Amino acid sequence: MTSDRRTLLADAALDVLAEEGMRGLTHRAVDRKAAMPPGTTSAYFRTRAALLTGLVTRLVHLDQAELQTTAEAFPAPRTAEELVNGMVLLTRQRLTGEGRRRSLARHACAVESVRDQELRAILVPHDNAGREAVRRFLAAHDVSDVETRTHTLLTCIDGLVFDRLVNGGEVPREALEGLVAAALR
């Protein structure tokens, strides 16, 4: 039951952070969002740092699950078009509904992690199915320095998602095609 309650509170904290920003993330706000009695969040996450750590841990877990699902839908891209199709799906997921909520929280936590090494350690890019699919694709196309190009490509996609979070709209397919073409050069 404790694990379920911690997950519920971490999900509520993600909602609060996405809706109200870092300043709005308080134990009381999470209690309200989770429809729990006052003091519940602080009983499970005693300090703000503990609350942020729980939130970021949950965020990474949800992101990893999303990336696994996307990789299963596009298991082994063989062509640039197949890789772009997977990226289009991922960027749409990150800009709508549940994915948008997590993207807003992720970016707020990334900024916070500049001053908090514990958060930084949790948020650093993890190996996952999506990253591995890009890595294998680039290696199969004899790209030099696969690790650096994988990192650069995925960082550029994150930047495009951030831009669309701030300015609205979808990531244009042409932009993703251009990034993949650049990675292959």
From TrEMBL:
InterPro entries for the chain? Homeodomain-like_sf (IPR009057), HTH_TetR (IPR001647), Tet_transcr_reg_TetR-rel_C_sf (IPR036271), TetR_C_31 (IPR041583)
Pinpoint the HTH tetR-type domain residues: 3-63
Judging by the UniProt lineage, the source's domain of life is: Bacteria
Q: Which UniProt keywords apply?
A: DNA-binding
User: Where the record puts its DNA-binding region(s)?
Assistant: 26-45
| Protein name stated in the entry | TetR/AcrR family transcriptional regulator
